[in-house]
Amino acid sequence: MSDEKRQILPEAKDAYLRQRSTEFEAHPQAERLVDWFKANAGWLSPDVEIAYSNSRGFHLRAIRPLSSSVLVRCPLRLTLSHLNLDNTQTAVLHVDSPLKAFVGVLPNHVLTRLLLIEQRYLAKTGEGPWQPYIACLPEPEAMTSSVWFDDDDMDCLVGTNLAAATRSTLALLTEEWEHAVEVLRDAKLPTPDFLELKSFEWAASILSSRSFSSDRILPDREPFPILFPVVDILNHSTNANIEWDARPFEDFALKQTKHEAVQPGDEIFNNYFPKQNGEWLLAYGFCFPDNPVEQFAIKMTIPLPMEEALRKVGLYKPENVPFGMSKAFLASNPNQEQQYLRTRGHPFERYENSVCFLRGIPPWIVHLHFIMVLQNLGIEPASVDKAHPPARIVFDILLKLYEALEMKSRLLPILDSPRTFPNIKQKYAYIYRNGQARIIHAVREELRAVFDKLQVQNQMSPSRPVIISTTEALIALKSDFPEHYQRFENGLKIYYDTTILTWSSYSAQISALEEADHPAELSVWKVLLFALAHLYTTTFEKRDKLVHRWIQALQQLHPLPTVAAVDDEEPVFDDDMLGDFVHGVKRPIRDLNHTVVQEELPLELGEPTGERLGDRVAAWADGVVERCAFQLDGSERMLMYLETGDEAVDGEWAYREEEIELGQGCGVVLEKEGE
Q1: What pLDDT does 284 receive?
Q2: Residue where a domain terminates, one of 453, 482, 497
Q3: Fewest 10 Å CB contacts: which of 13, 134, 367, 420?
Q4: What's the DSSP call for residue 283?
Q5: Where is the SET domain (predicted)?
């Protein structure tokens, strides 16, 4: 292209100069850096300049339309790394430094930091082969990565993974610095004042934010961090049209792939590749709102005794992986590798799973909970259809995952955005923190949507799986067996001082009651299940009633205890209490022990003629409620998940593909009441 065509158009030039005069400065250090770079075989496009502003620091801007795609090319000779201390390396600059004696003694990355600290000290006195380059590097007071957060800044990260990662990074840096100082002192080498911990942290920050991996230019050795002067001066943008061009053992260049679109005055960016905001803020000192690749990292910890127990029931067997999930995750170590929650629409895609609302949760976590649920229920993995486990198992997995996410959500609420921030570090901390919070809340809301669709409140339950409180159970009892309901209502009045005027009033009363530091509704559930099971064993008609089907489904999963097991247990209820609920008069539980049960009764009694049936049903009701009753956040009610015993109906909700709108996330659609 001719010189005439490379000139800035008058109107573009005027606009650019106006912009420069108000925001950008012609920095003498930038001019010295360019002169030094070119004098040492570096190449910088004549169509760009290194500019400076308070907000952008040193960066690259176009001064005219680009005549070539190549922006900058740095020779291997100008790079800075531990190789500069190794006299056997002929392709790089060598420095006369006492640090050369520690090549092979200290780790290479530590040597690079020490060399950078030394060169920074020399640069301040106008010395050193990289002086113009070092002079343009940011000083500690300009650092904004989380390593440089003070206590107030760190408070903004409470509840996040980055808080722990920052503390770990600082601890590791301190350990490496102390070891390096000890090695230098053992060698009788003076440790100058400038070799302080803050300088070591500064060097680590420079390398984490500006270095490249050496394998592009030195493919014959293990990768290590290496600094390319001027190449590293470009700021980051995910939209940058940039290409990295390395010629092994020679140089490293950046190319603008759509250079025709660059206008005079435009800042030219590099693309450091997609990263999550935690990595950006820890290593680079910035992050982005609405980062599309953001995930929530979960570090699993399986204690060794638990792992050994789960291994025995098939934790690591591919044939036990449920829900059609890929078995590849079994090759990873769950205690070492992080797992990631992902929201719907994530560019990395979500996880393969036949259960729609579990697709945002990593396979290792789903599989671990699957095996744990089987173990808790006493179910052998071989007896379960892994592709479509029964809905009861799906529900227990769902509940355990939801409780864990709910606890984390409380620790990491979504905060309102303040109008101003005390400093830029707290602004970035807020961006990162709320981005993490939105992920965990979105995945949690996917699971909560399932509960909301299953839950029935203050009305008759439909003939499908439901989540209900004692209110809805009593409504069903009243509908199916009005006389038995009247007896139970009388028992509530005697023992809980509760009068059912309306269902809403009962719900309010029972929610407010406590019994031995537990919700009173927990014991009401136990009495109610006993009453329903008693009704089930003594009523030989109306076998299709909903309350009977609930008990039958529960009993299939939780069989009655044996007589021997009951003998070892303390009495569950007051001996006369149950009579008021079941018979309307005080009658001891042993009356039910003598009940003769007909052979055709579809109940797995486990003992001939229902021996000691009353004691066993009481123990059964207590055990089922202790294992299965739960609370959802925002409610004081004790809830139970109940199925109809019809496998086709009970499993339908778990494997439907329909979605509901949650902002982010996948939900399920169930039939509306009455359909």
Answers
A1: 96
A2: 453
A3: 420
A4: I
A5: 46-273
Is residue 474, in this structure, part of any structural domain at all? yes
3-state secondary structure of 193: coil
pTM: 0.86
What is the domain extent for residue 596? 466-642
Instruction: Return the number of other C-beta atoms located less than 10 Å from residue 360's C-beta.
Output: 26
- Averaged pLDDT, 510-522: 90
> Do 420 and 391 share a domain, yes or no?
yes
CB 366 within 8 A of CB 322: yes
Residue 579: helix, strand or coil by DSSP?
helix
**Does a structural domain hold residue 74?**
no
Residue 674 has pLDDT above 80, yes or no: no
Coil, helix or strand for 355?
A: coil
- Show which of 399, 422, 453 is a domain's final residue: 453
Taking alpha carbons only, the member of 564, 429, 550 closest to residue 480 is 550
φ and ψ of 60, to 5 deg = -110, 135
Note the pLDDT of residue 592.
Answer: 62
Are 557 and 476 in the same domain? Answer: yes
- Name the residue among 353, 205, 367 with its Cα closest to residue 302: 367
Cβ count near 589 (within 10 Å): 24
| Pair 448, 475 in one domain | no
**Residue 434 and residue 579 share a domain:** no
Mean pLDDT, the chain, rounded, equals: 88
* Euclidean distance between CA atoms 95 and 441, whole angstroms: 53
Of 204-218, 423-437, 542-556, 597-611, the one with minimum mean pLDDT is 597-611
Domain membership flag for residue 459: no
* Same domain? 418 vs 483: no
303 & 445 share domain? yes
Q: Is residue 378 part of a domain?
A: yes
% the chain with pLDDT above 90:
72
The C-alpha atoms of residue 94 and residue 557 are separated, in whole angstroms, by 75
Residues 6 or more apart whose Cβ sits within 8 Å of residue 592: 534, 537, 582, 613, 614, 617
Written as six digits, the tokens of 342 are 């992902």
**Residues 318, 443: one domain?**
yes
Residue 599 has pLDDT above 60, yes or no: no
pLDDT at 299: 86
Structural domains in the chain (count): 3
The CATH number of whichever domain residue 95 belongs to comes to 3.90.1410.10
Long-range contacts: 314-321, Cβ < 8 Å, 24+? 314/371, 314/381, 315/367, 315/368, 315/371, 317/381, 319/386, 320/367, 320/370, 320/371, 320/381, 320/386, 321/363, 321/367, 321/386
Q: What is the DSSP letter of 106?
A: B
**Overall average pLDDT of the 398-402 stretch:** 97
Return the pLDDT at 658: 65
- In tens, the pLDDT along 426-481 reads 999 999 999 999 999 999 999 999 999 999 999 999 999 999 999 999 999 999 99
For residue 673, the SS3 value is coil
Token pair, residue 515, equals: 């019994």
Contact present, 293 and 277 (Cβ < 8 Å) = no
User: Which element (helix H / strand E) includes 61?
Assistant: strand 57-62
What average pLDDT does the segment 533-543 reach? 74
Of 343, 329, 352, 366, nearest to 296 by C-alpha is 343
Residue range 230-254: average pLDDT? 95
pLDDT at 601: 45
Q: Mind giving me the DSSP string for 386-399? A: SSS--HHHHHHHHH
Q: What is the pLDDT of residue 595?
A: 53
Domain check: are 616 and 470 in the same one? yes
